[in-house]
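Narrative of accomplishments. A recurring question from our advisory board has been how the design workflow behaves on a single, concrete structure rather than in aggregate. To address it, we present the structure tokens for one chain from the evaluation set, followed by the sequence designed for it. No filtering or post-editing was applied between the two.
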């Protein structure tokens, strides 16, 4: 949410659930997905990167934005890569939970989309640094120009993603795990666009759950058809004069499905795992002077 603040972050997160249904129709290319991902990041939805602002480790008179690896919903890479039975079980429950949520928001291929999310997040986990590597203060200090991302990390459309968040105002940044961002670029070229769209929808769901738990509420799926789903479509309509996208933005049928959820019933896989995923910089507060992630 911008500093002018037209909506509270938690309200925006709750209504963002609509994009879980609308995103497939609204986004037709990877560059468009990158821009929508940037828009959603402004209201606290996780994405390919977690960012935070901090004192520059090599210049105590300045502050700088640090870009960290993100992209996964479960806490760490071993949750995706380990053959240990407990992690296998967690992965199965994660797919089952996503399938239920995708069904509620009327995705036509809910089960397949849930499996696609796990597959993509598994690939992202493979290129992530270990926690021990990410604690290395020297190796994680890699200052570069944001304009060089396309050359250093080709494949992902960094320019529209960054512009959507106003990062051009801070052209020099620190990248903590360069090989991860290079891996994101490679995956953007290799993995199907439909997998990325399902993954971004899952990020919306996880973002809603995290905010509800922070408020000491049970994770609930309510108010699914509203502002951010419309914003995602309006974003495309504004760029392409897409009357079809604007029409999709008015679809409020998802809210009826939400009423089926028992509001008092806990969702264990969310309670135990979704809210603890590290590396999401929006948990840290303010990214820059104009973007409030709290």
């Amino acid at each position: 949410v911008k500093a002018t603040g037209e909506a509270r972050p938690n309200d925006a997160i709750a209504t963002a659930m609509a994009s879980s249904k609308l995103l497939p129709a609204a986004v037709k290319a990877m560059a468009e997905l990158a821009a929508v991902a940037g828009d959603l990041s402004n209201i606290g939805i996780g994405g390919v990167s977690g960012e935070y602002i901090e004192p520059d480790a090599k210049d105590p008179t300045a502050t700088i934005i640090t870009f960290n690896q993100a992209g996964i919903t479960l806490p760490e890479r071993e949750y995706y890569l380990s053959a240990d039975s407990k992690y296998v079980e967690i992965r199965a429950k994660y797919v089952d939970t996503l399938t239920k949520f995708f069904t509620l928001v009327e995705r036509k291929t809910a089960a397949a989309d849930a499996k696609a999310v796990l597959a993509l997040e598994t690939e992202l986990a493979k290129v992530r640094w270990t926690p021990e590597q990410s604690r290395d203060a020297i190796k994680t200090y890699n200052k570069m120009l944001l304009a060089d991302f396309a050359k250093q990390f080709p494949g992902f459309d960094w320019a529209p993603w960054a512009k959507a968040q106003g990062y051009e105002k801070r052209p020099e940044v620190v990248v903590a795990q360069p090989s991860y961002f290079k891996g994101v670029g490679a995956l953007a070229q290799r993995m199907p666009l439909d997998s990325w769209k399902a993954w971004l929808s899952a990020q919306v769901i996880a973002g809603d759950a995290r905010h509800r738990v922070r408020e000491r509420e049970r994770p609930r799926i309510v108010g699914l058809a509203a502002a951010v789903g419309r914003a995602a479509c309006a974003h495309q309509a504004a760029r392409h004069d897409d009357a079809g996208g604007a029409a999709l933005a008015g679809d409020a049928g998802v809210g009826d499905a939400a009423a089926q959820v028992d509001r008092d019933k806990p969702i264990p896989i969310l309670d135990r795992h979704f809210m603890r995923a590290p590396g999401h910089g929006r948990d840290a507060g303010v990214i820059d002077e104009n973007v409030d992630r709290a």
